[in-house]
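Quick one:
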Amino acid sequence: MTAEIISGTEIAKKKKLEIAEEVKKLKEKGITPGLAVVLVGNNQASRTYVTSKQKNCLELGMHSVLVEFPESITEEELLNKIYELNEDQSIHGILVQLPLPKHIDDTKVIEAISPLKDVDGFHPINIGRMMTGQDAFLPCTPYGVMVMLEETGISIEGKHVVIVGRSNIVGKPSGQLFLNQNATVTYCHSRTKDLKYHTLQADILVAAIGKANFITADYVKEGAVVIDVGINRNEAGKLCGDVAFEEVKEKSGFITPVPKGVGPMTITMLMFNTLKAAQMVEK
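Output:
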């Protein structure tokens, strides 16, 4: 049995066409969805992500603003800039690229963003709404995973989903989104005893731990759906996920590759959230 590969690139392409169509409709009404990305310091990985976000904005006909600050910026200056963007009517979404320098409190910065412009889905108000099944901006990576499964026709209801990882950005919200769709969810993490016991029960296994090739075939149940959220570099410096792709694909039913799996979906859902924020203004 060789797994069917879920191509994030292909699904993202399809979604982007749908988003571009909606952007066009909004522009005809005089509203251009606008995204402001705030970049502090000169982290190379962050800069690569930011460039990609801008490129996507332009491709979809959105308005994109990059606000750059040196690493030495004070927390107060950064917060003031966010308050200014909250008031700017040409901006519908605000994203502060993490990680931030040590002297700036991430939590304060995230909470300063208006929940109506929080297109990353990290604000406690959006997280609370997600937890209670209300309409909210959903965190882009977990949301991308849900869309991939939906587009592939994989049903979630009643399935046992095991999530390896409990970060606020991926692990925790992923579990909640699966729960909202009537899955049974198990969270595993670095303190979980006998990890393999849990992962072998998963109908859908989500790996989000940040350890290259950690999930090998002996962690995976025959025919399971394996979603690899990890982005790592192996010893040769090559991009790889948390799942040992070559061996796991021989045992699973469906699998996402790295690259070209979850990654393209993350940016696509950011664009979707920015569009949604602009549509809310129109209403």
